[in-house]
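Hi support team,

I've been running sequence recovery on a batch of backbones for a student project. Most finish fine, but this one hangs at about 90% for roughly twenty minutes before it completes. I'm not sure whether the input is malformed or the queue is just slow. I've pasted the C-alpha cells below so you can try to reproduce it. Let me know if you need the job ID as well.

Thanks,
M.K.
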C-alpha cells in the first residue's frame, strides 16, 4: 500500500495564490496524499477559496484558525494530519510534479526521519531564477550527517526552511517538534536546529523540486521585527545544544556561530537605520543586544569572519554610539 503524505499549506490573505498552489499539488505524480489548507484568520477571500477546494476534491481539507501567524498555522495543520509523511508548502511558491513521489521513495528506501531536497530561487523583482547548486546525494545516520554534511547544508541554505524537507510524521510527533508561535521571523531555522537534535536517519536529495519566490518588498527580511533578536538567539541556543551531542564539533559550532553573528548584526543595522525609532530608542535597543551574554560569548570565537571584527570590538567595548554611527551613517 502507498504511504500517505500530508501536505500542510499555511495561508494568510493568500487568495490570489491558492488556485495555482492547489493546481500544482493536484498535478503530483503521487496520488495518496491529503492537502491541509490552513486559513490563518484571513480577511480576504482565502477562507472561501479553501472551503471551495475542500468540496472539489476529497483529498483536500480546509481548516480555519484565528489569526495567529505562520508558526501556529503549521502546528495546527500538523495536528490535523493523518498521513505517514509530512510536507510544508508555502502557498505563494511553486513545486514540480514529482516532488512527493521522488522524496517519499527515498524516505522509505532509507528509513529516513527527514529528507532534504534542493530548490530554485526566483527573484520577482528581476524575474531571474537561480539554481541552488548543492551537489551530491547523501544517506546516513545522524553522526555521519553532522560530520560530513551539516555545514554544506548551512552554506547552501538547505538547512534553513521547512518547505524543502519531507518528514516522517511519527518522528515529528514522537519528538514533539513544533514551530514557536511567538517568533515571527527565523522560526524556520529554529525548527531545523531543534529537529536535527532528534533525527536518526537523514537523506539529502540534490535534485530541485521547489521554486522559492523572493518578494523583497514587505518581506520579513526587509521589515523590522520586535522578536528578531530573541528568535535568532533561540535558534543559536538550539544549534549549540545540537552540536553538544557530538565530541568533535568545533568546526560546526563555528559555522553556526558565524551565522548567528551575521543575523544579529543585520538586526543591529535594522535598528540603527529605522526612522521610526528615536535616538534614545536606538541606543536602548542596541544596548540590550550588547549586554546579551549569549551574543558576547559568540563574538569571542577564534574564527570570526574578518568583516565582523569591527562590530566585535564595538560590542565588547560597549560602544553603542559607535555601532549606531557605523550602520546609520557609514552604511556598513
Amino acid at each position: 500500500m502507498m504511504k500517505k503524505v500530508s501536505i500542510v499549506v499555511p495561508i494568510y490573505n493568500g487568495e490570489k495564490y491558492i488556485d495555482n498552489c492547489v493546481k500544482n499539488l493536484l498535478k503530483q505524480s503521487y496520488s495518496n496524499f491529503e492537502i491541509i489548507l490552513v486559513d490563518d484568520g484571513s480577511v480576504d477571500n482565502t477562507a472561501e477559496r479553501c472551503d471551495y477546494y475542500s468540496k472539489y476534491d476529497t483529498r483536500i481539507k480546509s481548516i480555519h484558525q484565528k489569526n495567529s501567524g505562520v508558526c501556529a498555522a503549521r502546528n495546527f495543520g500538523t495536528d490535523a494530519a493523518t498521513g505517514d509523511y509530512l510536507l510544508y508548502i508555502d502557498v505563494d511558491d511553486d513545486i514540480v510534479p514529482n516532488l512527493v513521489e521522488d522524496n517519499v521513495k527515498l524516505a522509505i528506501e532509507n528509513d529516513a526521519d527527514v529528507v532534504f531536497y534542493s530548490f530554485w530561487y526566483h527573484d520577482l523583482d528581476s524575474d531571474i531564477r537561480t539554481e541552488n547548486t548543492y551537489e551530491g546525494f547523501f544517506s546516513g545516520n545522524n553522526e555521519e550527517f553532522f560530520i560530513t554534511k551539516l555545514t554544506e547544508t548551512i552554506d547552501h541554505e538547505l538547512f534553513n526552511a521547512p518547505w524543502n524537507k519531507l518528514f516522517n510524521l511519527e518522528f515529528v510527533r514522537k519528538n514533539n517538534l513544533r514551530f514557536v508561535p511567538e517568533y515571527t521571523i527565523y522560526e524556520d531555522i529554529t525548527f531545523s536546529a531543534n529537529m536535527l537534535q532528534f533525527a536518526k536517519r537523514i537523506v539529502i536529495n540534490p535534485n530541485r523540486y521547489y521554486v522559492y519566490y523572493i518578494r523583497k518588498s514587505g518581506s520579513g527580511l526587509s521589515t523590522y521585527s520586535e522578536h528578531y533578536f530573541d528568535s535568532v538567539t533561540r535558534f543559536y541556543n538550539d544549534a549549540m545544544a545540537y552540536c553538544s551531542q557530538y565530541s568533535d564539533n568545533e568546526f560546526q559550532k563555528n559555522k553556526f556561530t558565524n551565522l548567528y553573528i551575521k543575523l544579529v548584526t543585520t538586526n543591529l543595522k535594522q535598528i540603527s537605520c529605522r526612522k521610526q525609532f528615536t535616538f534614545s530608542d536606538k541606543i536602548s535597543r542596541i544596548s540590550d543586544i550588547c549586554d546579551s551574554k549569549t551574543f558576547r560569548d559568540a563574538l569571542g570565537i577564534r574564527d570570526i569572519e574578518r568583516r565582523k571584527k569591527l562590530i566585535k570590538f564595538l560590542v565588547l567595548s560597549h560602544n553603542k554610539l559607535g555601532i549606531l554611527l557605523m550602520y546609520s551613517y557609514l552604511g556598513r
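--
Follow-up from support: It reproduced on our side and the slowdown came from queue contention, not your input. The radius of gyration is 21 Å. No action needed from you.
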